[in-house]
Every structure is written in structure tokens, then in C-alpha cells.
Amino acid sequence: MTDTEAAADVPTPGRPQPSGPPASRWSALVARVRRPGTPLGRHLRGLVIGAVIVIALLELVSPFRVSQITTLSYYVVACAGLTLLTGINGQISLGHGALMAVGGYTTALLLPAGLPFLVAILTGAVAAGIVGIIVGAAAAKLHGPYLAGATLALAVGLPGLALAFADTLGGEQGLTVDVPRPPAWFADAHFFLFGSDPSTTQYLAYIGALVAGLVLFLLANLHTSRYGRVWRAVRDDEVAAELAGLRLGRLRVLAFVVSAVCAGLAGGVLALATRLVAPSGFTIVLSLSLIAAVVIGGLGSLTGAVLGSAVIVFLPPLVTGLGARAGLSDVQAAELAPLTYGLVLVLVMIFAADGAAGLVRRLGGRLRRRQGPGTGPPRSGHDAAQESDDAARRTS
Amino acid sequence: MQQFLDLTLSGLSQGAIYAAFALALVLIWRSTRVVNFAQGAMGMFTTYLALLAVDAGWSYWAALLLALGSGLLLGAFIERVVIRPVENGPELNPVIVTLGVFIALQALASLLFGAQYRSFPAPFGLTGLQAGSVNLAITPYGLFTIGAVLVTMIALVALFRFTDLGLRLRASAFNGEVSRLLGVPVGRMLTLGWALAAVVGSLSGLLIAGGELVWPAYMDPLIVYGFVAAVLGGLDSPAGAVIGGVAIGLALSYVSGYAGSEFAGLAALLILVAVLLVRPAGLFGRATVRKV
Amino acid sequence: MTAPERRSERPAPRSTAPPALVVEGLTATYGPVTALREVSIPTEPGRVTAVLGANGAGKTTLLRTISGLVRPQAGQVRLGERDLTGAAPETVAGAGVAHVPEGRGVITELTVEENLRLGSLLGRRRASGRGGPARGWSLDDVLELFPAIAERRRRPADTLSGGERQMLVIGRALLTEPDVLLLDEPSLGLAPRVVTQIFAVLRDLTEQHALTVVLVEQNARSALEVADTGVVLALGRVVAVSEAAELAADQALRHAYLGF
Ligand SMILES: Nc1ncnc2c1ncn2[C@@H]1O[C@H](COP(=O)(O)OP(=O)(O)OP(=O)(O)O)[C@@H](O)[C@H]1O
Ligand SMILES: [Mg+2]
């Protein structure tokens, strides 16, 4: 039995079952949403609550904050995808910045052709997905450090294309992106609701937030679906998963493609938000900050991806400000942010491999006094003998 | 023909540097099963220390010794303090830790030394040697590079093959448990292994900087080229790393010369993917890549 | 130390009294699994203690706990005056406990001679630590003892056969100048004749050098032939201790725990 067949005949909790007339399907869906505890219901409610919060923020905060929210949205999209790959399926990628570049450049190339921006962004996502198939197929055979190195090579090598095909891709200077103006219906609706015309910045933030919300919703469902479980199984015990008849290679490629599509979407939103795609925007630093976000937030948790993205977006202005006040020059102060991520990354791995989300969970657990002795961090897979070995070795 | 010869010669001196870097990666991989993605940043950092020393009026050679010495300490420090705690956990954790060190060191360098381009001195001439009336693409500095890498290799071979310390180092890398039962302080050996590797990494950082510009990210491509070289040779094989390094140096030199330097990164990527798909254990490695 | 004329014949027997190994009340766990419960075994210089028991009884764990690879939850390991409880393996080895692990413990990436040299490195350190220049064993002594590996000394150790590997690791352990020798299933996978041969060598060495030997074996019959004392472990507990000959004669015990 292949995994796709299995997926077809095992009902997945995240998906309404295709039985009965549409009306009863609808009421079944509503019932699911109402019933607390079903993942779909939880996710839908999360989506709605998130939407309300984001809309409130976008209407109330300063334009600078609004543009930060746009930045946050593409980080969230990329990190959510990377979380699926690294956290859930256990494959690392240091090349997601390059996949974002594929999405961003595709968007930038298609927009002048008069395509609606959503079509352009989605095409960019598809393009990244196609690259993801190729990279994923190569990556499926690799693990750990080999995969890290190979994807790092991708991050370093791919931007070379922009220089090699400077005529189409703009070389070092890159391509400028025409930002879409808010369409009439959007402006009308906005005026009707809030009594003001939306700024372009707000419009972009809405687009970013919409994409982020949808991606999170879809990934959350994927997470709790059979695929989520299977991916985790592959991550935790590859041999057992293979013996259980799972096709590891295909599952890995699939995870890579889903995650590449997210990166492509993120790249598209980035292109709109920064109004420019250039090799300097998609360096190793971008790829590494994605990994940093995912790890700091907590490997394997979408909440963690959001938290981590928030750290990456909001920490730099904060520490830069602190540094400037402490007497550093602006250029120096700007380096405090990566210095902080780097150190935090190391500290998280040493002291709290489940990151911020794990910390929140553990604190919450402690507050509710539900913390049993068996619930440790999920990915500290030591075995006892090894631990005593370590312990012995530390003493040397 | 002249161009081919020139590209071969410059490829060789670049390749020597890649070989040194790849060797640093292999030494660490063999003993601790960690690919040290921070190796480039570490080499960058120690090269900046050398640059400070040169600014302060030190000779090139004193600065070189300073860089290698601080590489030794930096390597030992990083193994002891940040790698040791994650060594036996999931295999992703040390990868992420080295990435964290990479990001942090690079930021620290920008903070301390500034992010602007600085030129780094070379102890020997940078103009091509003459052979009769023909200008060759090999410079005195290029010859020095090749020589320095060769001397380092020979010193390492001598250390590992012919000394008791080398035997202990190898034993610890191959079988920690049995080594400990034979009284070898394996923890200390691993620290020393990292320290030695960091010296070699520092050397490669210094050599590639000679006569060129340095800035905090100047080693980034070298991480990739060095990694590709190491994988090409089989991550477990020091000799493979050296051969891999020279091969990558030549290949990238030809690609840059005939197609354009913007293709170098892509070529490295293609070589890597080809090796991993066709011969994942590398040309000289024995280990299998995926252990299912 | 009485060995001014080294390597004249066999290494000279030592004159100072060797320190005694004390293993008392060891309890060791792997996470939720308790592998040893208050295990004490009798040992004595010049005598072989056989530790027997079914698969999973805790024999390997016992040796690993003595040599420091596993930390005990409770109990004591002492060698002479020195408390080695919970010490690091390299410390225990340095104190004179040579552990030949299960599965032979050859470092296959090194040559035969390099494996032996690793043993000598520790032996030299121990000899100089004791203040005496005299080494009980040299590489040549060991090669003379095991001619089979002498011919293969420059070859990678992974080209050796099972029996040759066993000789190699025993030889390597001897080169560390041990006072205590812990052997984990040395007969595993060897032809009966080779087992007899190795056990005979072991017997000689124990007596000549006043070694304290703890011999873990599945092969209870042969082990009891060579041993002075026998200990039977079951589910991490000591269920019987007595003279080897008595154990071998106790039919009920043999049937219940030793399967012969
Ligand atoms: N690393 C480990 N992690 C968890 N449990 C272990 C570990 N090693 C051994 N055990 C358990 O401890 C118990 C004792 O194991 P041990 O290896 O000491 O047995 P043994 O007597 O040497 O068996 P055998 O004759 O098969 O070698 C067994 O139940 C085993 O499953
Ligand atoms: Mg055993």
C-alpha cells in the first residue's frame, strides 16, 4: 500500500468527509467547528481571532509598525514552511532564502506583464515548488550535515543566476517591483468600515496578513493530518517508519515541496513589501535568519514559527536602539541583532531545544500543575546509557 | 592554451586553500561527527586579529603566528563550551549550534572591526612570474600558498602517523569508548582535534585574504567550496579532502575563466549534487550517507 | 620491582602485593530499567571470578559499571585504597583496571600494532607512575604470546579473524599493565579449541601476575573450568556465589540458570 492510497482511504480529521449532500456536509463542518477539541475547529477559530487582532492592529498602529507587520507576515510564511520541513520532518534547509528568491523574482517578472499580483505571487510559489521538487529529490537522500551543506550551497549558488542572466534578472541591481494600488472595492470596503482610505502600506500589510493567515491555517491542518503524523514518524525513527511501509523518499520530497511553496509565497510578498528583488536581498543571512527564527521559536511548532518570526522582525530595532543609546555607531548597533540571534541560537540548543514555544508550553503546564514527570522536551532523544556516558565524560 | 595553463595554475593555488579548509572540516567531522559551519567565520575572525596586529606594526609572520595561535584557542573554546553539550543529542543540534556561532562571530567581527572592506597584506609579490618571455599566472604569493598548505599537511600527517599523541587523537576519533577504556582522555583529545582543525581553518582564512580585501563575510563562499571539496573527497578522508580541494579549485577556476565568475557558486552546487547523487560517500569515503 | 634484565624469558612476576578489587552493592539503571540491584562479587588477586547468567542478566552492565562506563546509583568500586565509584573510564583504566568490552573492542581503523601501542602507552604511564622503570610486558612479549597476530602486526585490525581479534584485545589489555582484567564474553563466536587455548593462557597469566580477573561468560561450562569462583546473575541480582567447582556440580542451579 502506498502512502497516497493510505491517505485516501483513511479519514483525516482535518478534512470533511466527502459524503452526503452539501447541506449536511456544511452542518457537519459547523458541528466540527463548534465542538471544542477538533483540530479543524481550533484552527478556524484561531484564524478568525488572528484576523480580528491583525485588522485591529493594522488600523491602529503607525505606518512604520504596519510595514513591520508586512515584514512579519512574509517571515511567518517562510518560517511556517520551514518548520514543517525541519521541525516536523527533520530535514534542515539552509537554502530557503534561495527559494524565496525564486518566488520573489518570478513575482517581479510577472507583475509588469499585467498579471494580477495574486496570480503573480501564486505563480512564484509554484515556481519555488518546482525548484523544491528538484532540490527535495536530491535532499531526500541526505541527512543532517550533508543536507545542511547542500542547501547552503544552494543559498550561495542560486543568486549567481541573477548575475549570469543580468539582462532579464537585473544583475546586482535587481528588479524593481511595481506595487499594486489598492483596488476600488478594497478602498470602498475599507472606507465603509473604518472611515478612511487605506494607504498602500496598509494594503500590502493586508495582503501579507491574508497570505500568512491562510498558510498558517492550511499548515496547521496538515500538521494534525495523517501526513503530519507520518512526517513526525519519519523524523523520529526512520527505520521503524520504513519498516512500517512508509515511502520515506516521497514523504521527504513532499515535505520539501510544501515548504518550498511557502518560501515562494513569502518571496512574493517580500518582493511587494520591499519593492525590489536583488541578490543582496537573498543572501545566506536571510536563510540563516529563517533557521534562527524556527529554532528560537521552537522546532516543530507553528506557534513557534510565529514567535520566532516576531523575534527576528522586532528584535533588531529594539537592540539597535539599545546599542545606539549605549554609544555604538548606527552601523555597529545594527550588528547587535545578528549577534543576539547567534548567541540565542546556541543557548537555545544547549538549554532548551524546544525553543520559545516549548518554554511557553512548559510554563503554561507548570501554571496549570499538569506537568507530569514524563513530559519533557520532545526532541532531546538521549538514551540513558548515552547520558551516563556523557555524564562520565564531562568529568574528565 | 595559454589561458588553460593560467587557469590551471591559479586553480592550483586556490585549490590548496580549499584543501586546507576542507581538511579542517574533515578533522572535526572525523572526531566529533559535526560539520563545523562556523569554520569560515572562525578563520575570518582570526584573520582580522592578524590584520590588527599588522596595523599595530607587527610583521606579517608574527601576525600569522598570532592568527594560528588564536585559532587554536578559539577552536578549543568552541568545542568545550558550545559543542560538547549538544554532541550526543539529535544530529541537527550541533549543526544549528555551529550556525549560531557563525552568525554571532560574523556580527561580532562587524561590531569590533567594522563592516567595511579592508585590504590584507601579502608577504610575497602578487605579479605573475616570468618564464622566458611568457607571463605565468602563478605568483610568488601563490607559490607561498601552495607551500604553506603542503607544509601544514606534512606536519599533520607526521603528527597523526608518527606520534603517540597522534595515535591517541586517531583512536579517540574512531572509537571513543574503547579509547577511554585504554586510558585515553578522549574529551581532551576531541578538544585538541577541534583546536588543530581551527588552526588549519585559520591558515586558509589568512591565505585567501593575502593581497585581497577582507570584510566580515569574505569567507562565506569558502564554506561552501570547502564543504563541497570535503564531500567530494568523502567527509571521513583527510587525503580525500586535499584531493577534493585541489579538484574544486581547478574546476571553479575553469568555470570562472571560461564561463564567468558568477557561475562559480552554481558550479559548486552542481558538483556537490552530482557527487551526492552518484557517489554519496565521496571519492575516497567508505561511510554510507543514509544509514537505513 | 624486580626486572633489571627485562625480556630475558617471560616477564618477571611482580613482587609488591597487588591491590584488591572491591565490588560492593552496585545498583545501576538505564532510565526506567534497573539492570543491577545491589550486586557484590568476590574477587582476589591471582584468581578468576566467573560471572554467569542468561541474556540480559546484567553481566555486561556489571563490567561497564566497574570500569566507569555506567555510573552506579549506589554501591562501591574500590581498587586497593582508591575509590573508583563513578570515576571516568580513563581514570579507572589508569588505576589499573583493563576492561575488554563485549564485541571485542578492536579499533578497526588502526593497525594491529597501533592497537597494541595504545595499550603500551597506558602501561608506560602506569609503570612510571609506580616509580619503577620495569614494565611487566613489552609489545614483543605479547607478540610472542600470540604468534598469530605477530605476523599481522602491520595490517589494519579489521582484517583479523574473530580469534585473532580476541588475542589482540587480550594482548592489548595486558600491555596496559593491569591489576584487574575484566573480560566480557571472550569466547563469543570462537571455535572451542581457540576458547580452550585462550582460557589456558588466561589461567597462566592470572597466576603468574597475580591478576584479578572477572570473566563474564555465556559459555558457563568452560568458564567454570577456568574460574576459581562463580557468581550467577539473574535479572540484575546475584542468585548464587560459590567455588566454581561447587557451582558446576550443583545440578539444580545449572538447569535453572546456566543451561547445561
Ligand atoms: N544502553 C541500554 N539502554 C537501556 N537498557 C539497557 C542498555 N544496555 C542494557 N540494557 C538492559 O539492561 C539489562 C542488562 O543488560 P546487559 O547488557 O548487562 O545484559 P547481559 O547479561 O550482558 O546480556 P548478554 O548475555 O545478552 O550480553 C537488559 O535488560 C538490557 O535490556
Ligand atoms: Mg553482555
CATH fold type of the domain at 19-93 and 220-260 in chain C? Rossmann fold
Quaternary structure? heterotrimer
Instruction: Compute the separation of the termini of chain B in Å.
Output: 48 Å
Helix count of chain B equals 11
Number of domains of chain B: 1
**Strand tally of chain B:** 4
Rg of chain C to the nearest angstrom? 18 Å
Termini Cα gap of chain C = 44 Å
Measured as a percent range, the helix fraction of chain B is over 70%
Q: Strands of the biggest beta sheet of chain C: in what spatial order?
A: 6-7-8-3-9-10
Q: List low-pLDDT spans of chain B.
A: 287-292
- Compute the number of strand runs of chain C: 10
InterPro entries (chain A): ABC_transp_permease, LivM-like
Protein name (chain A): Branched-chain amino acid transport system permease protein
Keywords (chain A): Cell membrane, Membrane, Transmembrane, Transmembrane helix
Biased composition (Basic and acidic residues) (chain A): 380-396
What order do the helices and strands come in, and which of them pair?
The complex is a heterotrimer of chains A (396), B (292) and C (260).
Chain A: H1 3-9, H2 22-34, H3 39-60, H4 63-88, H5 96-110, H6 117-139, H7 144-157, H8 160-164, H9 166-169, E1 175-176, H10 184-194, H11 200-224, H12 226-236, H13 238-243, H14 248-274, E2 276-277, H15 284-297, H16 302-325, H17 330-334, H18 336-351, H19 355-367, H20 384-394
Antiparallel strand pairs in A: 1-2
Helix pairs in contact in A: 2-3, 3-11, 4-11, 4-14, 4-15, 4-16, 5-6, 5-7, 5-14, 6-14, 11-14, 12-14, 15-16, 15-18, 16-18, 16-19
Chain B: H1 2-32, H2 39-55, H3 60-83, H4 92-113, E1 118-119, E2 130-131, E3 134-135, H5 140-162, H6 164-174, H7 176-181, H8 186-209, E4 213-214, H9 220-233, H10 238-258, H11 264-278
Antiparallel strand pairs in B: 1-4, 2-3
Helix pairs in contact in B: 1-5, 1-8, 1-9, 1-10, 2-3, 2-4, 2-8, 3-8, 5-6, 6-8, 9-10, 9-11, 10-11
Chain C: E1 21-30, E2 33-41, E3 48-52, H1 59-66, E4 74-79, E5 82-83, H2 89-95, E6 97-100, H3 112-129, H4 139-145, H5 147-150, H6 162-175, E7 180-184, H7 192-209, E8 212-217, H8 220-226, E9 229-234, E10 237-243, H9 244-249, H10 251-258
Helix pairs in contact in C: 3-6, 4-6
Bound molecules: adenosine-5'-triphosphate (ATP) and magnesium ion.
